[in-house]
Write a structure and sequence with these properties.
The chain is α/β, with parallel strands linked by helices. The chain is built from eight helices and five strands. The mean pLDDT is 95. Bound molecules: shikimate-3-phosphate. Shikimate-3-phosphate binds next to loops.
Length: 170
């Protein structure tokens, strides 16, 4: 039987990787993080790929990884926050997956991203302003999903529980 993938999309700092691992563990499914795949493939960190090769290069590798991941079945996929900026990526992921959007308010995103130095798009300028602008630019892309969860104020267990109930309803 073909088992659908569970694909988590959403802005940086919404917990896609942490929650994805938890869901995979609970449902005994495999787990893939597209950013980790990109880092392994390139032998560089995301920050180094951005600084040495540029964002366009990163996006091209990201799209290649999406194609490969979309051929798998029965896995949980945590994606990078910008994966939705190429419509084709979401089309691929949807072929064999349920797309779940994790969304959060700006304060939650700011808090969750403030300590990390591996998010090149949030390393400069007024970060709050940048988050607000990027959320605005991307909001219609994130709406292109099957289910949406506002994770603000929820812990990992709670978010994982909601995802699992969506999947059981399918
Ligand atoms: C990005 C999000 C990051 C990573 C890269 C670009 C984005 O992933 O793919 O820094 O454009 O939103 P996370 O959402 O896992 O932080």
């Amino acid at each position: 039987m073909n088992k659908k993938n569970i694909v988590l999309i959403g802005f940086m700092g919404t917990g896609k990787s942490t929650v994805g691992k938890k869901v995979a563990q609970k449902l005994r499914m495999g787990f893939i993080d597209t950013d980790e795949c990109i880092e392994q493939q390139e032998g560089l960190t995301i920050s180094d790929i951005f600084s040495q090769k540029g964002e366009e290069y990163f996006r091209n590798i990201e799209s290649e990884v999406v194609k490969v991941v979309s051929c798998r079945e029965g896995i949980v996929v945590a994606t990078g926050g910008g994966i939705v900026t190429r419509k084709q990526n979401v089309e691929y992921l949807r072929k064999n997956g349920v797309i779940i959007h994790l969304k959060a308010d700006v304060d939650t995103i700011l808090r969750n991203t403030s300590k990390s130095t591996d998010r090149p798009l949030l390393q400069y300028g007024d970060v709050r302003k940048r988050i607000v602008e990027m959320l605005e630019q991307r909001k219609q892309h994130y709406r292109n999903c099957d289910h949406e969860i506002d994770v603000s104020g929820l812990d990992v267990e709670q978010v994982a529980g909601r995802i699992i109930s969506f999947v059981h309803e399918e």
